[in-house]
Amino acid sequence: MRITTPSEVAHQAGNKYLGVLVAAKFARYLNEFPKDQLAGSGEKLTTQALQSLVDGELNYKLVRRRRSEA
Length: 70
Prior knowledge:
Elements: H1 6-13, H2 16-31, H3 45-54
Helix pairs in contact: 1-2, 2-3
């Protein structure tokens, strides 16, 4: 099992907090697929998502939240 360090995540995402948020969102996306379609590596989805981020396989875009006018 490979250990992903916060500095590796920060290098890809700009900072470690944003990297963890992106990886968590991707892990939730992976969780929507049936278990038999996922790679049978035996790793947790969060580990797979962090590894994809560190390897540069994830592309993401920050979208500014619109505030509602009350």
